[in-house]
């Protein structure tokens, strides 16, 4: 009786390519000879599924099959032909996850968040950090084998890391289960690392922080990451800098910002005040009539640029502070001052209310 390929795959005659592929993979997974070793019926079923899929997945063969049956597709009921290498590769990769012989494995990178002060970021610093990491076992030097012994060639795969066997009409290669693809096995595991070749330890490093770093800056220390297995290169250590906020200064690029309060008499009469800088106090002259928000720049008192080495400025914002408590004499003097001043001494106030009059008539 002629075979019905659609029935074999469990799809209707209008099935899409995606539906065919899903049906084939599901059935192939169920009836694969590997799952039913020695089951001749499963082997025949698997051949039948492959035969049906090889025809229906090819548009030309499918068209011929729909018109003339299996003979029209170039296949007879007794067997099958065609090129199955392409879709066998898909299925085998799904089933076995083909791998080459395991070789050196690079170590993982590590991250360490390091808190530094505002001054450390501005001028640079040297810090010591202790990093937990894996390192080669000192007893076996990373081999995993007890001192005086060595890993030996795997007898199951003859050192290739791959097992090959015949299953019906299929020749299959997969990762050796005995050596896990390494090609060697450890007969006498190291007692200190239990055959792993690595131990957990802590390493203290000296970190040089350059001047001018900012929040989120990243320092890379090559080779100080996790141990690389089987002779692989170690990973790297990445240190991310967290800059603690300063109680007085804020940073904008290479400039630092400082808001300085001054009294009304100082601002009105002018004075010389003392302002903080990263290197200590400095003198700043305030001219008479200074207003809140007036900006002064102290050249070269900022942070050094990591690109040019030149230092930014310190930007000083003046904030005039109104006294919160006045004694009787102070009130009398201020009331007298107010009565004889009018608006003449307040150009900003006069300008503002002149504009109000223009707007509202």
A few lines on this structure:
With 361 residues, this protein is an alpha+beta fold. The protein has helices at residues 5-9, 17-31, 40-56, 59-68, 85-96, 118-123, 264-269, 328-341, 347-360, and strands at residues 110-116, 125-136, 152-153, 162-167, 170-175, 184-185, 198-209, 218-221, 237-243, 250-252, 255-263, 271-277, 280-286, 295-298, 314-321.
Describe it.
This protein is of the alpha+beta class and about 350 residues long. The chain has four domains: about 5-95, DnaJ domain (Helix Hairpins); about 110-150 and about 185-245, Sandwich (HSP40/DNAj peptide-binding domain); about 245-320, Sandwich (HSP40/DNAj peptide-binding domain); about 330-360, no CATH class. The chain has nine helices and 15 strands. The strands form six sheets. The chain has a four-stranded mixed beta sheet with strand order 10-11-15-14. Strands 1-9-8 form a three-stranded mixed beta sheet. A two-stranded antiparallel ribbon has the order 2-7. A hairpin with a 2-residue loop joins strand 10 and strand 11. Helix 2 (about 15-30) packs antiparallel against helix 3 (about 40-55). The longest helix has 17 residues, at about 40-55. It is elongated, with a radius of gyration of 41 Å. Residues about 75-100 have low confidence and may be disordered.
């Amino acid at each position: 009786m002629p075979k019905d390929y659609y029935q074999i795959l469990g799809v209707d005659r209008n099935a899409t390519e995606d539906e065919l592929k899903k049906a084939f993979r599901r059935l192939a997974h169920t009836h694969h000879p590997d799952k039913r070793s020695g089951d001749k019926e499963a082997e025949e079923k698997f051949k039948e599924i492959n035969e049906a899929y090889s025809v229906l997945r090819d548009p030309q063969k499918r068209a011929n099959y729909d018109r003339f049956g299996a003979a029209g597709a170039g296949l007879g009921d007794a067997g099958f032909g065609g090129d199955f290498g392409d879709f066998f590769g898909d299925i085998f990769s799904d089933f076995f996850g083909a791998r080459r012989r395991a070789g050196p494995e690079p170590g993982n990178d590590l991250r360490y968040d390091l808190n530094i002060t505002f001054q450390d970021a501005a001028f640079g610093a040297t810090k010591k950090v202790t990093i937990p990491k894996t390192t080669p076992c000192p007893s076996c030097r990373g081999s995993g084998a007890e001192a005086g012994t060595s890993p030996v060639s795997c007898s199951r795969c003859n050192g290739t890391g791959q097992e090959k066997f015949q299953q019906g009409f299929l020749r299959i290669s997969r990762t050796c289960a005995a050596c896990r693809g390494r090609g060697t096995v450890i007969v006498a595991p190291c007692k200190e690392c239990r055959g792993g070749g690595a131990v957990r330890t802590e390493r203290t490093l000296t970190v040089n922080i350059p001047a001018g770093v900012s929040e989120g800056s990243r320092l890379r220390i090559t080779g100080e990451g996790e141990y690389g297995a089987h002779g692989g290169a170690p990973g790297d250590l990445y240190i991310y800098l967290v800059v603690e906020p300063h109680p007085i200064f804020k940073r904008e690029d290479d400039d630092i910002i400082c808001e300085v309060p001054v009294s009304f008499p100082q601002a009105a009469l002018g004075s010389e005040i003392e302002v903080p800088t990263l290197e200590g106090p400095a003198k700043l002259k305030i001219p008479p009539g200074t207003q809140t928000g007036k900006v002064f720049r102290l050249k070269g008192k900022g942070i050094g640029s990591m690109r040019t080495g030149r230092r930014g400025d310190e930007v000083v914002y003046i904030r005039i502070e109104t006294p919160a408590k006045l004694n009787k004499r102070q009130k009398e003097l201020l009331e007298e001052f107010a009565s004889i001043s009018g608006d003449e001494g307040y150009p900003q106030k006069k300008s503002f209310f002149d504009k109000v009059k223009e707007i509202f008539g």
